[in-house]
Design goal:
By secondary structure, the protein is mainly β. It has helices at residues 3-23, 297-313; strands spanning 25-31, 41-45, 52-53, 70-76, 82-87, 96-101, 111-113, 126-133, 138-146, 162-169, 179-182, 188-197, 200-207, 214-220, 239-247, 250-257, 262-268, 275-276, 292-296. The strands form 5 sheets. A 4-stranded antiparallel beta sheet has the order 3-2-1-19. The longest helix is centred in the N-terminal third of the chain and has 21 residues, at 3-23.
């Protein structure tokens, strides 16, 4: 091989290495710390088992009266834009927060979307979760709200008897009228839609009734339901904020085990049997629940750079 050809080959090989590194997938886990007034945080991982805190807040909450950010959920559209929704208040708040970003560092002006203002007695709008429905090219937002005296309450207080509601949007400017998403016959919060395959959807949620307060799943051939074939409650009591991610041939179901003050995880391949792998995962202390999604190494490098700049100023 002549020197010029050798040089071109080396340059091409180096470019391929850089390109592969930039496109390598990394897992991000949205997060917040109590008392939820600091804002959006991220954890990252290369294997979805061992997580590192970026130790930086990327968006300070401004939407809503309480100015908090809980349960941040992010979904990316086909145009590459990231969309973020979050809980803006514990009670007496009928809306959710919203902002968008192209790089997870620079964010749009925040909005307070009054998703439950059509129900004047609605107590809250908790834990909104975003799902991009690629079959219908739309975003689905699901959250939990209490409308007193609307549903049988069992052991629940009327102000803590939640059902799931939803709206859809294509542009986060126009939204379909809010509708009931799920009434499973018990108080339910913290729902996340996951697509397992074509016409195959999983809904992970928290049974928020007093005897349970733990995690279960249901299934549907449509992201909007109806959902059926509910599984058993497969986590310990006082579990909430479930997040699903596929890694290899298995799915990991992370959840906030708030009484034990740690993050738990279950592994499954068939969504019928669940193995407790909490002792095998590593989640930084103080992390509170969000959602897991994938980004490129290049995207993570931008976040690392932003976090490092913040650390250097301390």
């Amino acid at each position: 091989m002549n020197p010029l050809a050798k040089y071109v080959t080396l340059v091409f090989a180096f470019a391929m290495i850089i390109s592969c590194k930039a496109s390598k997938s990394v897992y991000l886990f949205t997060s917040f710390h109590e008392p939820a007034n600091e804002g959006l945080r991220f954890l990252y991982s290369y294997d979805a088992w061992h997580w590192t805190d970026l130790n930086h807040t990327f968006l300070k909450p401004e939407a809503g009266e309480a100015k908090i950010m809980r349960d941040p959920s992010i979904a990316q559209g086909p145009d590459g834009v990231y969309h973020l929704v979050w809980t803006t208040g514990w009670k007496n708040d009928q809306g959710i927060g919203y902002a968008s970003s192209t790089d997870l560092v620079h964010w749009s002006a925040q909005q307070h979307i009054n998703v439950m203002d059509y129900e004047p007695t609605a107590v809250n709008a908790w834990a909104p979760e975003l799902f991009y429905d690629d079959e219908a090219d739309r975003f689905i937002i699901v959250w939990a709200s209490t409308v007193p005296n609307r549903f049988p309450k069992g052991q629940e207080d009327e102000n803590n008897n939640h059902r799931l509601y939803y709206t859809t949007t294509r542009d986060f400017k126009a939204f379909t009228p809010t509708k009931l998403f799920l009434d499973p016959g018990f108080s339910v919060i913290d729902a996340e839609i996951v697509k397992r395959g074509k016409n195959d959807y999983i809904l992970v949620m928290k049974d928020n009734t007093r005897p349970n307060r733990n995690i279960l799943l249901a299934f549907s051939n449509n992201p909007l339901g109806p959902y059926s074939n509910y599984t058993k409650r497969f986590t310990e009591m006082y579990s909430e904020g479930p997040s699903l991610i596929k890694t290899g041939n298995s799915w990991l179901i992370y959840y906030d085990s708030y009484r034990l003050k740690r993050y738990g995880a279950m592994s499954t391949t068939d969504f019928k049997t669940f193995t407790d792998v909490s002792d095998s995962v590593k989640v930084p202390e103080g992390h509170k629940h969000g959602t897991i999604f994938k980004v490129t190494q290049k995207q993570l490098d931008l976040l690392l750079k932003k976090a490092q700049l913040k650390n250097e100023r301390r």
